[in-house]
Fold this protein.
Amino acid sequence: MLVSCVAYADGRKLADIKPDEISDYLSRPECFVWVGLKDPGPGELAAMQHEFDLHELAVEDARHGNQRPKVEEYGESLFAVLHMIETEGAELVVGELDIFAGRNYILSVRNRAKKGFVDVRARCEREPHLLENGSGFVLYALMDSVVDRYFPVLDMLETELEMLEGRMFAGGSARANTEAMYGLKQKLMVLKHAVGPLYEGVGKLYGGRVPKVCAGSQEYYRDVYDHLSRLNQSIDSLREMVTTALSVNLSLIALHENETTKRLAACAALVAVPTLIAGIYGMNFKHMPELDWQFGYPLAVLMMVAIDTYLFFRFRKSGWL
Amino acid sequence: MLVSCVAYADGRKLADIKPDEISDYLSRPECFVWVGLKDPGPGELAAMQHEFDLHELAVEDARHGNQRPKVEEYGESLFAVLHMIETEGAELVVGELDIFAGRNYILSVRNRAKKGFVDVRARCEREPHLLENGSGFVLYALMDSVVDRYFPVLDMLETELEMLEGRMFAGGSARANTEAMYGLKQKLMVLKHAVGPLYEGVGKLYGGRVPKVCAGSQEYYRDVYDHLSRLNQSIDSLREMVTTALSVNLSLIALHENETTKRLAACAALVAVPTLIAGIYGMNFKHMPELDWQFGYPLAVLMMVAIDTYLFFRFRKSGWL
Amino acid sequence: MLVSCVAYADGRKLADIKPDEISDYLSRPECFVWVGLKDPGPGELAAMQHEFDLHELAVEDARHGNQRPKVEEYGESLFAVLHMIETEGAELVVGELDIFAGRNYILSVRNRAKKGFVDVRARCEREPHLLENGSGFVLYALMDSVVDRYFPVLDMLETELEMLEGRMFAGGSARANTEAMYGLKQKLMVLKHAVGPLYEGVGKLYGGRVPKVCAGSQEYYRDVYDHLSRLNQSIDSLREMVTTALSVNLSLIALHENETTKRLAACAALVAVPTLIAGIYGMNFKHMPELDWQFGYPLAVLMMVAIDTYLFFRFRKSGWL
Amino acid sequence: MLVSCVAYADGRKLADIKPDEISDYLSRPECFVWVGLKDPGPGELAAMQHEFDLHELAVEDARHGNQRPKVEEYGESLFAVLHMIETEGAELVVGELDIFAGRNYILSVRNRAKKGFVDVRARCEREPHLLENGSGFVLYALMDSVVDRYFPVLDMLETELEMLEGRMFAGGSARANTEAMYGLKQKLMVLKHAVGPLYEGVGKLYGGRVPKVCAGSQEYYRDVYDHLSRLNQSIDSLREMVTTALSVNLSLIALHENETTKRLAACAALVAVPTLIAGIYGMNFKHMPELDWQFGYPLAVLMMVAIDTYLFFRFRKSGWL
Amino acid sequence: MLVSCVAYADGRKLADIKPDEISDYLSRPECFVWVGLKDPGPGELAAMQHEFDLHELAVEDARHGNQRPKVEEYGESLFAVLHMIETEGAELVVGELDIFAGRNYILSVRNRAKKGFVDVRARCEREPHLLENGSGFVLYALMDSVVDRYFPVLDMLETELEMLEGRMFAGGSARANTEAMYGLKQKLMVLKHAVGPLYEGVGKLYGGRVPKVCAGSQEYYRDVYDHLSRLNQSIDSLREMVTTALSVNLSLIALHENETTKRLAACAALVAVPTLIAGIYGMNFKHMPELDWQFGYPLAVLMMVAIDTYLFFRFRKSGWL
């Protein structure tokens, strides 16, 4: 689906144009065209491939989807794949943004993602002095936007870990906690898959030899790189903490087992000792003076109660009950 | 066994030729020969070594088999070893594809693998403009095909992990699960051994200094490299998740132990308390008024039942039963 | 909030100046200005950006805060972000110090940190021969001061680990210990986040190509680098020891469980054996000579006591009690 | 002990010579001398040092033994240390092979290893066209032989792991298994120590700048390197699998504990329930009609048996027995 | 404290000199001075700083102590920090050796270490042809000596691990073992801190660009580097084995728990079954023929004994007792 198709020159919007006008604008030297597609059919992609002369392998990647994030050069043009991560409740949904960037065009293809890039377009048009840098700046603005959307996802996962830690030490359901930790680890993996390879890819867009398209916006790409670096480090820390939490969880389960055993033992003792006393007075010896006492029976029961009371407080004191 | 032996020129098939015609075609400058062998005997390999002037060490590697995947240059020719991984039920079968590629020949030797490369040959012949690049493109097409066949294997292992996770949290047999996780780890190791070294090897076939044979197809080799990179990352993630799953599994076993202990203790209590009551009324005190009551016995039994009922619901409420 | 604003020349303080005099002093070639801000409002930052012609991206980073430590070049000026770690009881509070350093100015922006840099200013003014190196030396002095403040934090964490080790082997509360170890791991993560990225960043300020501002103070930056390297290694060691301690902790919990089980079993035996004896003499056989003995009953009780005494010492000897 | 001392020229053996003839042959330009020592005394080494003008540090290393594998250049000559790993039953015995290689000599010193290099000498003499490359080829042949002897050791360890896996899942003695896994890890460490450093060392003998001695045999050294790379990867995989096996082992032990607990509980129930029934009929109530029944006693016993039978099958069904 | 102060020329000792004669000897071109200090006061260090014109940062490091090992260049002079590790019983004591090396002087400052370097001085004076290389060779000799002293420490730790392994599998006190393993890990950390950074530092003293002072003794520095590499690898292996041992230890504890549980259960059964029998014959049924038998009582006791004997051997056979 075609979302938008706009021509720019000198940092300013010229006009919303129709797809078949693209080649007219591409031929003007000072002008560049920005096309946005959403979940396009094969025909739309093929048309764009023809219009912008895109490399077959890149288009095939965009058509297949499920690529890992990357930044590839095809001659003078760039092909970038980014994962768009959106949240649905506590679950993560992974979409994909494929960007083709050449000297005088930018084509963004969004797949399986709800939120678009209206805000990016607005930002670019608000800053004509930066948009003058052409497609390289638009590429930056799109990347920056996708990367900035990772932060709330990361925050959500950090909050989730904190909640799990709280529940773990507060003694919540160990089974649910264990399962949630495993799920958190899986989500971190998804985020890592989005951030890690992109981090490597963006590193090639500033400093040293840089693709021509990006040359004018190097400091901006370094900024994206820096954000990715921060994300990367935070994800790794979170993963390590989840691993630590899992092992702490095991210790706490073992501790709980220990406490359960002690508690059981205490309870067992509270039953076993009176049973022994009852057993003793159930013996059939002829000469057992207590049996003949008037208050033998209540005294025996009293003795049971007394011993149990003593044991109860002793167990309580030593933390077994 | 000779599978096929075809001469190509200008991206088009010339003819199916006989092995002894190879040298005629090799002498024509614009022409190259593509030979496919399957589980060849030593004689066949020796004949090909003579025909194409292959390096002794490379031929020895192909003869011995059980090589790790690699891409080696011998002068102007290349020798590549790839693992072919096929599935038999839930098991993995590792075959080997050895490719000798020179300026005007390509020799592929398939060992212990069922599925051949008819589709690759068909694809190459469908795209004469690419096949014009000569043996370098055929080498790419073979590699691409082998690598693409890793993806369904990876998918199978991912599905296996998901199933194991499901069974683990649903409380299936922990013993069978543990064993299956170990088996999954082993299979991931097999896949890793196929992908990891090849990933390194293919990295030398594009960018920077490139073997002459591959020079015209660099972007295609980068595509294979990118696929291998994706596989590599997915395998590593899977391995990490299996390790995590194993440790979660241990936690769940410990939790289950805990629950078992509690349940036992509850059952024991349901027996021990009535036993104590019976013991008390089994005491031989002379003066135990209850013993003389008309309904002493049923009352005692009733008391036992009442206490057990109370305990039963209390245990149920606190999750011990 | 403006903390200070001073002009220096030839390593000596010229005067405390007002913000609107800054541009006068900046125009003098031999002179540089050092401005210190604390939790500045957006207006203050914007004024400074205008005064010193700071790069927009750097100012934005300083405005947002929550950056990871880094050292970035913008043309001939440097932008550095450092984490300031202060302790509140056993908790760590992370502040941020942003430093903008140009040929003839240094602007330090301190956020969320109590302790200022009066001592750094005093040290610089005490050593005019070093301050002659200009803003590069001030940048060093600020970095050195922040890094030196990490050491007492590290010492605190080391002491905390030692205390936890002591408690662990002395058999203190395993639950509290486990929780404290987890907390220690979290604090080490905070410190690692402050040290790790800075370590990388400072590595670029000496040896090889060096930003012009730092050129005269290279050996001093190497000294900071060396301190960071020491911190980095100590943090990694501490983290490894905490991980080891967590696994040792699990072993000790399992051992304790074992001891508990043994102790319970011993206690159970002390009750069960007399219960058996009582049961035997509670049998209703007609011909049980002991039952008729004069001292049968005390003898039976004596036997119970004797057996329990024997068992008690045997259990004690084998360490079960 | 001098094992052999032979002079070669043009790839062919000239003669077995005496140690004091060495210098005569060394002076002939086209000729090289190959000396083999076994567990030499200090005198023998000193004589050779004098004969071949070996570097003091290298000779000292050879004298002391217990070096890590390495390949070092001393001027135009090479000094290589390799570990020879032989098996004695299930144990590994580590010997050492020190090789001094110069333009016109090769001196191999074998320590604490039973198997010699008769086969290497035979192979070299069988292939005069390769032996023409001189001492560099002999060095390769020795290294290749040592490295090839690692493979059966690796196979043995792989077989050992498979056996341990089998025993582990078949429920063999967990204690013996744990100990055997630890032993396997130790042996893998020994093999790793032999392979890892050598892998690094051999990597310097082909491609890029290469010691003059090895220049003519580069493709052969790459072959050794490739074997070492395969060994290295297999060892790392094995180590990872042993670690995984150890953690699986722990899970299985915990599972077994769980099963033991359940079984015990089931047995305890089979005793406790009849005990309760016996206790009930041991109560001394006056009015217990069952006590007066003709078949009260057998009925009570029957009830016990019936309940136990029911419990037995229920436990069996739920897998507790 | 000044330990020694000697002037050398042409590889031979000239004279023991007084500190205030140092400058006389430094002015002679062919001569160098070697000064040894032990736990010096600030005044002594300041005097030497003045005498040899040492860099302030280096002297400050030497004054503060507690540096990590390193090798730093200050202009044409070198500053090296090494940890000296001595054993006191089973504990490690960490001292520090700071070496300042210039063209014509060597100053060694030993802190908190008992053993001096008399042997190094003797060795140097025994080998005038090497001492001719000047301060660079003395620096090597000191480093070599410190590094060689790490080996017995490593041997001690290896022996300790072997002892712990033995005790672990022989079933010694698991608590003491666990604590000892943790202690061993800590000691390995101390040794690692001494070796690891030094390994990096010494790597810069041979091959490629080398500080002028060391230029003549490169092969000797490579030898030290090789020793450090061996130490480094052994320490890493030991650490890995300790980690493995800790996890094996946990398995053995779990196994022991399992055995304890089984043993207890067996003992409980030996008591519970006779208790049941006694309970049965304690029932008050009117018609229980056995109760009237002449030998009913002894038969009942015999039955108890018989069953227990049977159970005892059955438990023993299945390893529960």
Strands of chain D lie at 2-9, 12-16, 31-38, 70-74, 77-88, 91-102, 105-111. Chain D is about 60% helix and 20% strand. Chain D has a mean pLDDT of 91. Chain D touches chain B through 42 residues (CB under 8 Å).
